[in-house]
Amino acid sequence: MYFIQPEDTGRIYEKGFRSACPIFGYVSKNAPGGCVWLFQETFDAVGGFDAGFVGWGGEDRDFFSRVEAIEKIARLPGIFAHLYHERAPEIKISMNSGKPWENDYRASAT
Q1: Which of 14, 49, 61, 84 is the most exposed place for a label (fewest CB within 10 A)?
Q2: Which positions ≥6 away from 62 have C-beta within 8 Å?
Q3: With the C-alpha atoms ordered 15, 19, 25, 31, is the resulting torsion angle positive or negative?
Q4: Can you give the pTM of this predicted structure?
Q5: Which residues have CB under 8 Å from 3's CB, separation 6+?
């Protein structure tokens, strides 16, 4: 997955992908998100996506892990472009502190 920088993501929104080039970012191998195709039965069996997540950076990993627990996941060749958007606040704090991320990234039920 090619994670596009914030400035370049903004240009893509303004001008379209081709007109915004060149774009910059970084590549992450085996990211849990991207484009996931599965049967409705599998989606239902794992309970779908958890709506309790805030920001991004945990919801795909959670869903991916639950699907992987019941089925083998095949990865197809290719690169996906990931447009920049804010991470969940707890993940940003963990990244900046150098400490491991703990699973307190979900919205509290009120």
Answers
A1: 14
A2: 50, 53
A3: positive
A4: 0.57
A5: 25, 26, 27, 28, 82, 84
CB 74 within 8 A of CB 88: no
pLDDT value at residue 52: 81
Q: Give the helix ranges, DSSP H, for the chain.
A: 6-15, 17-20, 40-45, 59-68, 89-97
Res. 33 pLDDT band, cuts 50 70 90: low
Residue indicated by tokens 């997540």: 53
**DSSP at 26:** E
Helix, coil or strand: residue 101: coil
Alpha-carbon separation of residue 89 from 68, 92, 104 (angstroms): 26, 5, 10
